[in-house]
Amino acid sequence: MNNLDSPVIIVATKNKGKVREFAHAFARIGKEVKSMYDYPDVPDVVEDGTTFAENAWKKAKTVGDTLGLPVLADDSGLCVDLLDGAPGVYSARYAGEGAADADNNEKLLSELESRKLGEDTEQPLLSPARFVCSLVLYDPATGEKLESYGTVEGFITSETAGCGGFGYDPLFYLPSYEKTMAELSMDQKQAISHRGAALRDLMTKLGG
Fold first, then answer.
1. Are 99 and 108 in contact (CB under 8 A)?
2. Is the dihedral angle over the CA atoms 45, 101, 183, 160 positive or is it negative?
3. Among 48, 65, 75, 187, which one carries the catalytic annotation?
4. Distance CA 3, CA 108 (A)
5. DSSP letter (8 states) at residue 74
6. End-to-end alpha-carbon separation of the chain, Å?
7. Strands 172-174 and 144-157
8. What DSSP character marks residue 47?
9. Does pLDDT of 164 surpass 90?
């Protein structure tokens, strides 16, 4: 299975931040990324899986079968130790359906502060956390699928910093860089991020 022979990669997402990251990554190998913005007639997929892998597979299969073309799907999110792994698969809608990134970040900080009552809530690092990404590449012509996985460890910081990235990036602090994910360049982020790791794993499995 080598569906990356095509000059176009279809990614099953309407998340503009993810589209930018995939486009940046695949441009390095001369591939054009198309997203669900290019296929407006494809219905939204209800992400009701209990794991990132389940949601990625559901999106890849549903969109791939609808288009009759190979599709790459991503499901990813933030898992915070002090919140027992939340927000997890609910990362994009932690503050409710249609919530903006700022709303989700605000709720995350509020939840962490409520858990830390009686402790030193003024400390800058509130909890260990990790970003998780599951990717599935599915070919409806053969029924084959490839799965890959990536993580990156860090901490949730008490104040947002940086204007790059998206989602929880402004709160995700990386001690090795002494910066949040939102303060990194795109190249730096993809070198260490969960999505970058998952893409490298996928390329290895494809023999690329």
1. no
2. negative
3. 75
4. 38
5. E
6. 11
7. antiparallel
8. -
9. no
pLDDT tens figures, 43-88: 899 999 999 999 999 999 999 999 999 999 999 999 999 999 999 9
Order of strands, sheet of 71-80, starting from the edge strand that comes earlier in the sequence: 71-80, 125-139, 144-157, 172-174, 179-180
The helix/strand/coil state of 150 is: strand
Distance CA 109, CA 193 (A): 22
Identify whether 75 is a catalytic site residue: yes
Binding residues for Mg(2+), as ranges, are: 75
Contact 82, 126 (CB under 8 A): yes
Mean pLDDT over all residues of the chain?
A: 91
Torsion of CA 147, 153, 99, 92, to 10 degrees: 10
Residues 6+ apart with CB under 8 A from 163: 170, 182
What pTM did the predictor assign? 0.89
Which residue is listed with tokens 């910093």? 161
Q: Which pLDDT tens digit goes with each residue over 81-128?
A: 999 999 999 999 999 988 999 999 999 999 998 887 556 556 778 899
Q: What distance in Å separates the CA atoms of residue 91 and residue 105, rounded to the nearest whole number?
A: 10
